[in-house]
Amino acid sequence: MDVPPGFTGRTKNMVCRLTKSLYELKQSPRAWFGRFSLVMRKHRFSQSNSDHTLFLKRNGGKTVALIIYIDDMIVTGNDEDEISELQKYIASEFEMKDRGGLKYFLGIEVYKSKLGIFLSQRKYVLDLLDRYVRLQTCRNTNHTKSLFSKYPDQVPTNKE
Predict the structure, then answer these.
(1) Do 47 and 96 sit in the same domain of this protein?
(2) Residue 114 three-state SS
(3) CB within 8 A of 123, min separation 6: which ones?
(4) What is the per-residue pLDDT for 54?
(5) d(CA 34, CA 27)
(6) What's the pLDDT score for residue 46?
(7) Is residue 9 part of a domain?
(8) How confident is the model at residue 144 (pLDDT cuts 50, 70, 90)?
(9) Number of compact structural domains in the chain
C-alpha cells in the first residue's frame, strides 16, 4: 500500500493502518470483478460482449458457461470435466461455497425434471399478493393514507 497523497513526515519504515474495510469502498466491487475477470481469462474463458458478467469457454463441441451476479454464480455446460476443473480453479483463487444444484437465482425459482428446466417467480407473486391483501385490509385507516398520500390531509378521489 502506498502512503496517501499529501502525507508529510517520515515515510521510511512506516506502515499504513486501514481504518476502513476495503469492502466498504465504492470502488471495491469493480476491483473485485476486475480480478475475477482476469482469473477467468487466465483459465481461457472469454467474456461475452453482450453481457459482461457471462464467461464462455468452447472447446470443440463442448461449452461451459459461467454467469455471475454480485457474489452468486451459475456454472453450466456439457463438459462435466471442465466444470469440475473450473470449480476447483475458482475455489483456489477465491473463497467459495458450492451450494449444489441450482434452485433459486435472482428471485427466480428453478425446477428441473425429465421434461426440461422450468423457471418460476411463484414466491415473488405470493409475496406481492400477501402485501396487496394486507394493504386491502387496512385500506381505510389513517396509517395507510399517510403512507401512500403525498399530502396526508388530501381527500381521495372517487374514480367510479
Answers:
(1) yes
(2) coil
(3) 107, 109
(4) 94
(5) 11
(6) 93
(7) no
(8) very low
(9) 2
